[in-house]
Amino acid sequence: MSGIPSGGRDVAVVLGTRPEIIKLAPLIRLLGERARIVHTGQHYDSSLSGTFFANFGLPRPHLLLDGATGPWGRGDQIGSLTSELARAFVADPPRAVVVQGDTNSTSAGAQAAHYCGIPVVHVEAGLRSGDRAMPEEINRLVVGVLADVHCAATDRAAANLLATGTAPERIRVTGNTVVEATLMSLPAPGERDRIAREHGAHGPFVLATVHRPENTDGAERLRALLTALAGIGERVVMPLHPRTRAKAKQFGLDGLLDRLDVIEPVDHPTFLTLADRARLLVSDSGGVQEEATVLKKPLLVVRTSTERPEAVAAGFSRLVEPGRPLLDAARAALDDPDLHARLAGTASPYGDGSASRQIHALATALADRAPLPGAVPVR
Ligand code: UD1
Ligand code: UDP
Q1: 182 lies in a domain?
Q2: 43 and 136 together in one domain
Q3: 311 and 255, same structural domain?
Q4: What is the DSSP string of 203-247?
Q5: Are 139 and 168 found together in one domain?
Q6: Nearest CA to ligand 2 atom 6
Q7: 277 Cβ below 6 A of ligand 1
Q8: Which residues does the annotation mark as catalytic?
Q9: What are the distances in angstroms from CA 239 to CA 80, 161, 260, 321, 350?
Q10: Which ligand minimizes its atom distance to the CA of 283?
Q11: 43 and 172: one domain?
């Protein structure tokens, strides 16, 4: 554990992975001197962590744990992080703890805070895929029980919380902070031209990301997915998550990767530029499902279920199985002459870019033991 004295930084923001940094960055900036950034160390490569601190101009973490690293299972990782975070919170208690999303870091942050008697704000609360085989679904359920304030991105997420008995007074529908994070990171058009040139992203291409265990941890499914991508008949640019790289190597699928335009994970402005310039997105990412609705891009979600059905209902994304269904859906999307125009006129279901401001008001009210602002959802 390494850190610097927290001073008056009384709102601890616990994060550990790339999407948490991206989605909490606008809130951290609003919290200013009140933000105590606690990094669990779950993502430790700079291409998944430090790069995003730099992208958003965030200060270095005030506390960095090393308990998440190592070849551990979920129990060990969540247990170790919970214990390290709890010791840190006992030594120097914040007035509130903010966690985001559904990672092991999110679960550990909420557990440690709750067991230390510190109120918890859950950003992006209420998502449910219904798939208990997803580690993230279990993390969402755990945090849903522990959180004191639930910041739901949509009415549907709020309804999920109400259905499980969460008191309406503790729920607010705020939108998703990814909207303002995307607007902050997306470069101006001229800069996008430069970044696209730098990455050779001229001409038509598809942008793909894959990292979910359901796609990476079984050889046959990963083979089917990569084979379909290689068969789309269009250049496929793929910033490769380290988990996927390791699994492809383990299963002897490097040859399939050679048929794609594989690059290292890129920073947020570069990723958004590539997404903006791509004809089609293919991904199993949560954040990309939301960003597609801001960038107005079609997305094939290679998953058996999604906790983000709003993007499907709005017409931005479609669930597909790897293999033939992915290939057919990609060709259909690429051949649809009206698709981009339809999406250009469709509003994002994830809010108007004010989520971080609303969550800032909620987190500081909670820390100040003041009444929570905002409307209570109707049951
Ligand atoms: C984690 C989250 C997932 C989130 C994703 C964002 C959980 C259960 N999963 O998945 O919800 O969508 O982050 O990207 O919390 N590795 C590196 N360098 C790193 C980090 C990881 O090489 O900096 C490799 C390691 O081999 C590690 C593997 O990637 O074992 C998986 O990392 P881990 O953080 O456990 O899960 P992710 O797949 O990244
Ligand atoms: N992203 C990025 N560079 C990349 C790939 C993704 O900046 O090379 C961003 C993307 O814009 C999105 C976030 O990472 O905001 C999604 O993270 P990831 O897919 O790892 O996690 P998930 O959202 O599925 O939890």
Answers
A1: no
A2: yes
A3: yes
A4: S-EEEEE---HHHHSSHHHHHHHHHHHHTSSSEEEEEPPHHHHHH
A5: yes
A6: 271
A7: no
A8: 211
A9: 30, 34, 10, 20, 25
A10: 2
A11: yes
Q: How many angstroms does the Cα of residue 43 sit away from the middle of ligand 1?
A: 6
Residue 330: give its domain's CATH number: 3.40.50.2000
* Alpha-carbon span 77 to 229, nearest angstrom: 33
Please count the structural domains in the chain: 2
Residues 204 and 323 in one domain: yes
Q: Indicate if the pLDDT at residue 300 is higher than 80.
A: yes
Ligand 1 within 6 A of CB of 243: yes
CA of 208 to the centre of ligand 2 (A): 11
How many A from CA of 285 to the centre of ligand 2?
7
Residues 358 and 337 in one domain: no
Start-to-end C-alpha separation, the chain:
43
> Is 260 within a domain?
yes
> Which atom of ligand 1 has the smallest separation from the CA of 286?
12
Distance between Cα 287 and ligand 1 center (Å)? 14
Summarize pLDDT for 204-235 with one digit per residue, the tens.
Answer: 999 999 999 999 999 999 999 999 999 999 99
* Within a domain: 249: yes
Ligand 2 atom at shortest distance from the alpha carbon of 212:
24
Whether ligand 1 lies within 6 angstroms of the CB of 114 is answered as: no
Give a yes or no: residue 265 inside a domain: yes
The residue assigned the tokens 């290679």 is: 302
Residues near 284 by beta carbon (within 8 Å), at least 6 away in sequence: 209, 210, 211, 212, 214, 215, 301, 302, 303
pLDDT in tens, 62-113: 999 986 777 789 999 999 999 999 999 999 999 999 999 999 999 999 999 9
Are 76 and 115 within one domain?
Answer: yes
Q: Is 151 in the pocket of ligand 2 (CB under 6 A)?
A: no
How far apart are alpha carbons 13 and 36 in whole angstroms?
A: 6
Q: Are 286 and 309 part of one and the same domain?
A: yes
Closest residue by Cα to atom 29, ligand 1, is: 243
Q: Among 302-306, 362-366, 375-379, where is mean pLDDT lowest?
A: 375-379
Residue 128 belongs to domain spanning: 2-177+353-367
